[in-house]
Each structure stands twice: as C-alpha cells, then as structure tokens.
Specification:
The protein has helices at 11-21, 36-44, 66-75; strands at 48-53, 79-82, 93-99, 105-112, 124-126, 130-140, 143-152, 161-168, 173-176, 179-180, 196-204, 214-222, 227-228, 231-233, 242-245, 250-254, 256-257. The protein contains three helices and 17 strands. It folds into two domains: 11-99, Arc Repressor Mutant, subunit A (Orthogonal Bundle); 105-257, Immunoglobulin-like (Sandwich), CATH 2.60.40. Strands 4, 5, 6, 7, 11, 14 and 17 form a seven-stranded mixed sheet that branches. Strands 8, 9, 10, 12, 13, 15 and 16 form a seven-stranded antiparallel sheet that branches. Strands 1-3-2 form a three-stranded antiparallel sheet, covered by helices on one side. The chain is mainly beta and 258 residues long.
Length: 258
C-alpha cells in the first residue's frame, strides 16, 4: 500500500512495473479512502506500506487521514521499519514498513499425509503439481470466508505461497489473503503425492462492502523469484464460478452470501 500519491509515485505505475517484471504484487493507495477504520483495515492486510517524503514538485495527494494512519502504523506493533536507503532523482526518499502479521485473518487448517480420493475431482491445478480439489468463497456477517482443499499431485521441490486479492466490483483491492499454506506446517516440500491440506480463512471486510459483489483472485507463487505456477482449468471447473485469469497464472472466483 502506498501512503502518498503523485503523478510519478502512484499505485498504477507500480502495478505496471510489477506486471512487466512478472512480480506477484498487487498495489493499492491510501489516498482516496474516506473511512479511517477501512483505511486501517486495508493497511493491516498489506505486506508493506510505502511512504515517499519530499522531492515532489508540489505537495503529493495524501489522504486527510494520512497522519493518524502513519501514527497507527508506527505504533500498533504490526509493522517494522525496513532499512532502505534510496533517494529518487527529485530528491525524495521512501520509507518502507513491513507488516509482520499481514491480513485481518482468522486461520485454521488440517493436513492429511495420505487421504484417499473421495469421488476425486480437480477444479483447477497449478503447474501440474497441486490440485485445487474443493473451494468456497462467501460473505458471512462482516467477513468473507474462504475455504481451500489442496491435493499434492507430485513431489514438490520448491516451497510455494498462496496469493489472494479480494476485489470489489470496480476491481479495487479491499484486502490480501497472501499466506503460506497451513502457515508452512508442514512445508510443501515435505508433502507426498496424495497429501491434502484443508484451510479456512476469514477476513474482516471494510465497512460498507459486505453487501456488495466481491471477487477473489488467487494462485500459487515461488516467493524468491516471484514466479507464479500456471493455473489450468479442468473439466469440473466449468459452471462453478471459477475462471482462469492473469494470462493463465491465477484463478478468479465470485462470492456468494451465507
């Protein structure tokens, strides 16, 4: 999340650079949110908060809540300042805050080393290595609930993370569900073919968004390189609200209401 917005330092420019470099990053800005509680919630779900100070030809466009938001980030214990020494050509400098506990998530899960298929079906598979066997995405009260059931198809040589972006009808990011599957316990490199990981994640939505249409874009990626596993549809993918997107590197789902 960007804490300031200008013609050169804005979420769209960062997003274009990430797409060009094939980095699995999603960018948002704090500049246009009017609800402070929603702003805090959105920042708490971001992995990093970036703030450029100085160097602008004129004052950057910042949110009227920018100062209390910065104080919240500096004092809530979730964020840690990242040593980062970089000066822009215009003389501005950037502050980087890393979120130690990204996301307003409630998480629970279960791992089965060898689970016999029960009417085995694969909604989608990623890189031919991991199958999405079951999935749901719904709103429940003031939160969204996401359930994944992953099945290992073959021995994994690399560790992958799941990225998840909650989007509103306009495509604006409301929150992130990026996480290690089962918090890395056990790590994916120790999985055996047939192993199953079952996850349930709950994310508290900003106020005013619970009754609106939502989408979830998700997939798997290798964090050191940023490379996403290719997402491919299977026969059972048709008709259940899931589509392949982002040039075949992610799956998009529409939510339902409990």
């Amino acid at each position: 999340m960007l804490g300031s917005d200008s013609p050169d330092f804005n979420a769209n420019n960062f997003e274009l650079t990430a797409v060009e470099s094939r980095f699995p990053f999603q960018f948002a800005t704090s500049a246009y949110e009017t609800d402070f509680a929603a702003l805090v919630n959105a920042s708490n779900s971001a992995w990093f908060f970036l703030l450029k100070q100085g160097g602008f030809p004129g004052p950057p466009f910042t949110n009227r809540h920018s100062e209390p938001l910065l104080k919240e980030i500096q004092s809530n214990g979730k964020f840690k300042t990242v040593p980062f020494n970089f000066t822009f050509p215009d003389g501005g400098q950037i502050q980087v805050f890393r979120n130690l506990w990204p996301g307003s998530l409630v998480f629970q899960g279960q791992f089965l080393y060898e689970d016999p298929p029960r009417g085995f079906s694969c909604l989608a598979h990623f890189g031919g290595t991991v199958c999405l066997e079951d999935f749901s995405f719904c709103t429940a009260g003031d939160s969204v609930r996401v359930r994944f059931r992953w099945r290992d198809l073959k021995k994994l040589d690399l560790e992958y993370l799941c990225f998840g972006h909650i989007l509103n009808a306009e495509g604006r990011v409301l929150g992130f569900l990026d996480h290690r599957i089962l918090s890395g316990d056990p790590p994916m490199t120790s999985w055996r073919p047939g192993s199953v990981a079952i996850e349930e994640l709950r994310f508290r939505l900003p106020s005013g968004e619970t009754s609106k249409p939502l989408k979830l874009r998700f997939g798997l990626y290798h964090q050191p390189t940023g490379e996403r596993l290719k997402a491919e549809r299977s026969g059972s993918l048709d008709g259940n609200g899931l589509t392949v997107t982002d040039q075949g590197t992610a799956v998009m789902a529409s939510h339902s209401t409990e």
